[in-house]
Structures are given as C-alpha cells and as structure tokens.
Amino acid sequence: MIKYIFRTLSLTFLLIIFFIFYLTFIGVETSRFNKIIEKQIYQYDEKIQIELKKVNIRLFPSELKLKLYSENANLIFDKKLLKIRNIKSNLPFKIFFSKNKTIENLDISTESNNINDVISFIRLFKNNINTMLASRFIKKGKVELNIKLNFDDEGKIDDNYILSGKINTAVIELPDQKKLNTTFNFFAKKKEYSITDLSINYHGIKLSSKKIKIIDNKNYLKINGDISNDFQEFNKGIISFVPINIFNNIESDKINLQSSNQFTFNLKNKFKISDVNFNSKLKLKNLNYKIKNQNLKKIFKIKDKIILSNHVMEINLEASSLKLLDRSKISINGSGEINNNNIVDNLTYNFSQEKKNKDLMLNFKINQNSISLDALEYNKDKKIKSEIVVDLNFNDKNYLNLRKIYLKENNNFFEILNLRMDDKKEFESVDSISLNFVNNFQNKNKLNIIRNKNIYTVKGDVFDGTNAINTFINSTKTNSIFTSKKQSILLDISKFYIDKNNYVKNLNGEINLHKKEILDLKIKSVFSNGERLNLSVKTNEKNHRVTTLSTRYPKPLISRYKFIKGFENGNLDFQSIKKDGKSYSTLIIDNFKVREVPVLAKILTLASLQGIADLLTGDGIRFTDFEMKFTNESSLMEIQEIYAIGPAISLLMGGYVEQDKITSLKGTLVPATTINRTISSIPLIGDILVGKKVGEGVFGVSFKIKGSPNNLKTTVNPIKTLTPRFITRTLEKLKD
C-alpha cells in the first residue's frame, strides 16, 4: 500500500515536473485566452477589434506568471487594418481563480504598415500636439511599430505605455509646402519622445541625426538633438539666420560645406519657436565673396571678388525667438584661406552679438598679396610678411566703432584706435592714430594724432602729405571726413613734404572745425630755402569764409600741376571768399618764368609764332604779372578772367571747367607786348603807328580750347584788331 502511494505520488510529481518543464520550454497552443485579450481591447475603445489566431502559452516559474504569444494577428479600427507580427501578454496565476479575467500587459509588434494608418491608431491612445503634427505633415511612408501596454486591475490601460519602431521612406510636407524624405527609429513614452538614426533627403541635400529628444511640458515641447551632413552643396540661404549684412555679398548660389550641429528649442502652440540654442561646426570648401567697397578694392587690389576656401568655423546661437534674431546672442569663430587673384593668404575671424551689440575681429596674414594705401603713398610688395588686425563694434543705434586697425610689416607700423562713425557712416571721432613707415618715395613718416575731448593734436618728426594735399585740393565735396561737432586740430610737424621732393619745416598751426567745414585756420611754415608759407582761413561776421595764401617761393606749389614745367621765381598771393556754397577767388603771381606749358605752346605753334613757341620750351618765357579770377561751386569752375603780361607775350582768357567732364576756354594772345607798349606810349607817334581807334594797328591771335579732359581740341584765328577789353586790361596793368 505504501509502495503504491509512493509510486502514485512520484508519478504525479514527475507529471507535474514534466508539465512545468513543457510549459516553460515548449508551451501549449490554445484559443481559450483570445476572448480575454479581445475583450480588454474592446473595453478601451469599441472601434478597435483584434483578430487572433491560436495563442501559445509558456510558464515562467520564477515570476509565477504565464506568458501568451500569438503571431500573424490583425488589428482593425475605423475600417483600417494593421498587420500584427506578434502579440505578447502576461497572465497572473490568479486569473484561474478570479471572476475578473484580465491580463497584466500587452506587447504588440506590427508588420510594415501604412504610416498614416498607424498614426490614426496611435491617436486613439494619445491625441496630443505630437500626434497632431505627425498627422498633419507626414504624407506617406511605412512603419514597423512596437506597442507596450500595461493594464490595471480593472483592465484599463495605464499611461505608462511605450511606443517604438521604425519609419521607412516617409514623405513629410513642410509648412512652406516643400517635401523631404526620411527614415528613422522612434521611441515614445509618457511626456518623452525620441528619434534616432535619422536620415533626411531634402531636394538632394542629405542630413543625418543620431538622436532627437522631445519632452512634453504641458504648454510646449522642449526639443533637443543633433543633425549633421557630409560635404555637399547648400543654397546660400542656409546662413540667412545670421543677422549681419556681410553675408549679403556672397556671390555663390551654392555653398559646399560639411556640418555637425547641436540644437535645443521650445515649440509652442501655432508652431511658435522660442528659446533657441544652436551650435554648429562647419567645414567650408569654397565660397565666392563679392567685394563692393571701392576703398577695399584699391587697398588689396581686388578685381571684383575673393574666394574663401578650406575654412573651419564654429557658430553658436541663442535666441528667445526666431522672429528676434537681431536681438539674439550669437558667436562665429573661424579661420581659413583667402584667395585674391589666385594668390592665397590666411584669415582668422571672431564675430559675436548680444542683443543689438555686434563685435567683429579680423586677423589677416597678408604674406603673398600686396597692400596699397594711396593716401599715404605706401605699398607693401608681394611675398613680404605682414599682419592686419581689425577690431570693430556696431551698437544698437548702428554706430560703428573701429576699436582697432593695426598693420605691421617689417619696420612699418600703422595703428588707429577707436575710430567712431555715426549711423550714416560719417566720421565722428578717433582717439589716436600712430604712423611709422617709409613710403614709395623713400620718405620717412613718423606721426601721431591724439584726441583730448574735441581737440586733436597732430605731432610728428616727418610726414609726407603729398596725396593728402592732392585729395583736399581736387575734392569737389564738402569735407565730409569731419564731424558736425566743433573740433580743433593743433599742428606741430617738424618736416612736412608737400610733394616727393619739396617740404616745409616747422609746420605749426590750428584748425577749427564746425558742421563739417573749416571755420578758422592758421598755418605757418618755412620752405627749405628759408622762404615762408602762410595760410589762413577766417569766417567773418557774415558767415563768409575767407581764405588767404601767400609765399615768395611758389615753385613747390605750382610744380604739383603736371601741365606746367620749369616754373621759377615769383611771388604768390591767393584769396578766396566762400559764401552760400560758392567761392570767389583771385590768384596773383608776379615776376615768374615758365619753361613749358603744352597748351600755350600749341597755340603759339598754330598761330605760326614758332619763335616764341621755341622760347617757351627752351629757356622759358617771363611774365611780370599773372592774375586769375574764378568761382567754384560743386564740380564747376567758372573762370571770369585769366590775364598774364610779359616781355614776350600777353594773354587774356576765360571760360569754364567741369571736373572730369568738359573744358571750354577762349581768349586772346598778343606777342611782342613790350614793343606795342613802347610804341603806344610815345606821344603823337603812337597815335600814328598804333592809331587813335582802340586796338588799331596791333596784331595778335584769338583761340578756343574745348573738349573732354583727354581729348582737348585747340583752334586759333589770327586777328589784327584787339578787343577793347584786352587793351583796357593792359593799360590798367601798365598804369599800375
């Protein structure tokens, strides 16, 4: 009996062990639990139906649970079908003893289904801004979906669900109606979503991302992640977010670059983007940059554009809103090659902006290219190492402050500190300028300008002002370099070159400025031969500006005019009155000689006065008196009269000159002035030989000069009777 009981118990135990082993490692198939699963799905939403085939049951002794497994099921909702790869669920042992037959969880893995159907299904569980955005912008594609659902004791789905899967070849339509293709993995749980292994193809532009994470904070979504690309061409609009106008000069329609980007931003209702944080590391192959500034073209001898190549840069952006990028915090740091006329040098740059305050630092290593500063007659030759540093700032009123401009080349040195310009880019002030260089004429320049409030002190050992004087004389515009504020300039220069050969010593004086005009000026200096040069400008009580210039050594002043050669001796007096924008001037030069004046020589030759023409190009012609009366307004010079008298010839002419456009002059030239003067001064005989009528018996030529500056045409007409005006002016001079 005992043996029988023992055998029975042993057999039962073995059967139990076998059954447990079989359930654990093999399991059984049954349709008994199909109704339980279908019922719980139906309880959640009556629109959802699930078609299950036989369910495989396996035992997990350690967890005291049974696990259900089913393949090739169908999920039906709103007449749409989702194909299920498999379904898994946990059954507690109490299900066999409880009247409320519920499962603990449900894991569903789908086949590749239409993405829009899957989104519609997900919205049954979670209909929020994320699923709404997905439904709006995702137009087509395939998705493999994994759903993990947990149920409470009453069979309701808890909110600790997990959705994951992979989207293949989805087409997304952007707000601007442009489309992109994408493939990625996704993961979603309560208030947290992520996208991994993302690849995007947007009109041939290929982008990728390792991970993008989305956090649901009730009123907005916080999104952060990365996106990158290998070298490829982008439209230049990709950098339009940078709020500085220097990018407007990019000539290339396409930009070839590689990038690695990190970003964070918040997305609110109505797709408002805020709290943007963007970091980008770029590698740029080539970029054509058009130079519009004519001064830069001259300085660096740029034909039209430069090429930026092999640049590496980092961009950081912080903005409260995409609509407020001009008030954002941004920094750009980079370096690379700069190609000018197929000659390569190096450039480093740092740009930063906080709100509307912008800073830009440029560092040029100009070793191969040349540099030309025409105003200072300075040129850096090619293949000489040099460095240029530019540090500038724009404030919220668009005022420009060039905090530092620095050029160093061998022993040559240029530095400007805190040069300020207003919103119209007109000069306002500068703190200091230091110059120490040798120019193209091999003249040493050493000069310093220091500002103390509204007073500038210009002090130096030596300075070549040739081009500065030329620019001042030839300018037809108001002295726009000056500010509208009252300012004074104190001059103290030991040696000041007025051209490449001539200079003055001990140049001292004061210039007072107001409203971009010279209010008062007084300068004294001495030429190398000891003769003095005095220049003054005074504004009288009628607000008329009176300019006077005098010297007994005018040769250095006249020699700058290339059409006059061999000027010797003479005394010069110049006076000009400017009122209502128009100047009235008189220039007088006494007792001088000229060796060559091409226009005058041509007139004499055309008039067959070859002897005097030869004299003009040989030893020279002497004049006892020269007087010129003229007016200037804008670019037009009207010459009321030029009168010159000398032993060989006398001259009277007038007309006008419009700068760089046209010259129109006409006049009378009379040779042998001394003979005519002598004859006419003899009583009775003069009346007989010369005649009582005005100009009778006296000969000369009339002439006209007209044309553009490079195409002047001269015509001559011999005359026997002089005009009354010529005779009157001659008699006035003789009387004087």
* Beta-strand residue fraction: over 45%
Q: What best-fitting shape do the alpha-carbon axes yield?
A: rod-shaped
Main sheet record: 37 strands, mixed
Number of strands: 39
CA gyration radius, whole angstroms: 47 Å
Overall pLDDT = 79
Oligomer: single chain
Task: Identify low-pLDDT runs.
Answer: 475-480, 682-698
Q: End-to-end span in angstroms?
A: 170 Å
Helical percent range? 10-25%
User: Tally the helices: what do you get?
Assistant: 12
Sheet/helix structural class:
alpha+beta
What secondary-structure arrangement, pairings included, does this model have?
Blueprint: H1 2-25, E1 28-30, H2 34-44, E2 48-51, E3 55-60, E4 65-77, E5 80-92, E6 105-114, H3 115-125, H4 129-137, E7 138-150, E8 162-173, E9 179-189, E10 192-202, E11 205-216, E12 221-235, E13 254-267, E14 273-290, H5 294-300, E15 305-321, E16 329-340, E17 343-354, E18 357-365, E19 371-373, E20 378-380, E21 386-394, E22 400-409, E23 412-421, E24 427-438, E25 444-452, E26 455-464, H6 466-474, E27 487-497, E28 503-514, E29 517-527, E30 532-539, E31 545-551, H7 555-558, E32 568-579, E33 582-594, H8 598-606, H9 610-616, E34 621-633, E35 636-645, E36 649-658, E37 662-671, H10 673-681, H11 685-689, E38 700-708, E39 711-719, H12 724-735
Parallel strand pairs: 26-27
Antiparallel strand pairs: 1-3, 2-4, 3-4, 4-5, 5-6, 6-7, 7-8, 8-9, 9-10, 10-11, 11-12, 12-13, 13-14, 14-15, 15-16, 16-17, 17-18, 18-21, 19-20, 21-22, 22-23, 23-24, 24-25, 25-26, 27-28, 28-29, 29-30, 30-31, 31-32, 32-33, 33-34, 34-35, 35-36, 36-37, 37-38, 38-39
Helix pairs in contact: 3-4, 8-9
